[in-house]
Amino acid sequence: MAAISRDEVAHLARLSRLAVTDQELDLFAGQLDVILQAVARVGEVVAEDIPPTSHSVPLVNVLRDDVAAPCLTPAEALAGAPDPFEGRFRVPRILEEDQ
Amino acid sequence: MIRETAASLGARIASGDLSSVQATQAHLDRIAEVDGRVHAFLHVDAEGALEAAAAVDARLARGEQLGPLAGVPIAVKDVIATKGVPTTAGSKILEGWRPPYDATLTTRLRDAGLVILGKTNMDEFAMGSSTEYSAYGPTYNPWDLTRIPGGSGGGSAAALAAFEAPLSIGTDTGGSIRQPGAVTGTVGAKPTYGGTSRYGLIAFSSSLDTPGPCARTVEDTALLHAVIAGHDPMDSTSIPQPVPDVVGAARRGAAGDLSGVRIGLVREFTGEGAEPGVMAAFRDTVESLTKLGAEIVEVSCPHFLYALPAYYLIAPSECSSNLARFDGVRFGLRVGDDGSHSLEEVMSVTREAGFGPEVKRRIIVGTYALSSGYYDAYYGQAQKVRTLITRDFTAAFEQVDVIVSPTTPFVAFPLGSRTSDPYQMYLADLYTIPTNLYGGPGISVPCGLSEGLPVGLQIMAPTMADDRMYRVGAAVESVVGTLTPPAL
Predict the structure, then answer these.
(1) Which of B17, B218, B282, B449 measures 20 to 30 Å from B187, CA to CA?
(2) Would residue B77 show up in a list of annotated catalytic residues for this protein?
(3) pTM of the model
(4) Residues of chain B neighbouring A25 (CB-CB closer than 8 A)
(5) Looking at the DSSP assignment, which residues form a beta bridge with residue B190?
(6) What's the pLDDT band for A1 if we cut at 50, 70, 90?
(7) Are B309 and A42 inside 8 Å of each other by CB?
(8) Is the interface score ipTM higher than 0.85?
């Protein structure tokens, strides 16, 4: 049985903000099915009472001293922006006129 | 000069026998001569390198005491931020981006007087084992230009094997330093996670990404390790402890005495799926280590065989989150912003145009593994397996000082032979992944040839015991020697 369908891949691509083409969907659906069936092997390990590990370094609440230090200027921060405008990052409109 | 070790170049520069400008120019000339065929570099910064070299020469002329690698040229993987110098991570989505700041690692290289020649090719966002997923075309293995140089850091390894640089920087999330080292006959070390700073490293999988040193000898690798390692307040996962004496350990190991060292062989790594020639070179080398006084002990790590599936859930999950920042707003590519598309459409079209197929596959797998309904069975279960793998290592290191294995199951494969079947590509990481999940250090050292192509031996050590792998690595090198590819 397939682990994932073409429609599910399309849904996940939408969630991931990837405007994939039909050809990519055809290709990925098969490949992702192979990958997911292989990685599902983690389920064979009985680990109900095992705590999860998210990270190998057991450090928590790491803070630096609160000391003022030089940082990027607005011009530097905007230097790589695709559409800088008056010291800001300009993006396509997200609100309609009457909102 | 281009065949000299970094240690030798550094000593000659310090003594005034050679200038950094001369050393830098010689490597720039070599790049001009061979990189059209090897394609190890995405960007060569000749002007910046010669300026930096002249500055080091001036400092030395004034009598300043600099470190042992001052004036030595180095190549840096294109995933590390270098101020004002293009940094693409091998992706079209960052084409032309020039970081406004230096990574901590870059700063440490500059402070130690190393001269950055340029940025090396890599699989896009460090996802791959062959450098074929670079958006800028593959790198070719100097041993055989029809074969892959490993990945993701194929450019950093190929630059060493082709004598374009004596040192390079890589990053290792699942084997991206060690596997390229193995298949190009060079040395590559993944330090303990948290031993080297991630500040300014473009993130792929934050709980696994580890920058590290690459060179042609174990001693050179250790010298570079000492330059880049150590606590960094800019990285909250950086370990606030002294760096182990890796250089001293490498020199001790080079003397060829391993008496009292217990070396573990993993029972579950039976060699199934590995090429016979790789296993033969590995076993011969292990046998020779017993003659240096090492004791070989079989250890059981029953969960190592689940490391690959766990990794290919954890890494894509973290990547799907990390790569959300590439949305065409603050840096990089923006496509489709013609007034007729919504913000969300612009993001989707930008990411579609800017990312290559492997990055898209991993983002989709990660989104799947993290989605409600699948989270417990996939991501949650993978994290539990990570705990069990860590316990396997902890138990094994009660019996042995280091664990050895082949670095990768196969020698450099022909370009194009695994790209259509992504899972076949993933198998290249079979032996390297466990230590990433655990967080300990690992090094790949050349251990012989199979069918005329290099084989690597991997040495794994407990966290913050990076010195142990350098000692054993240098002992391996004392037996095997360094491997030199045929003339290009």
Answers:
(1) B17
(2) yes
(3) 0.97
(4) none
(5) B442
(6) low
(7) yes
(8) yes
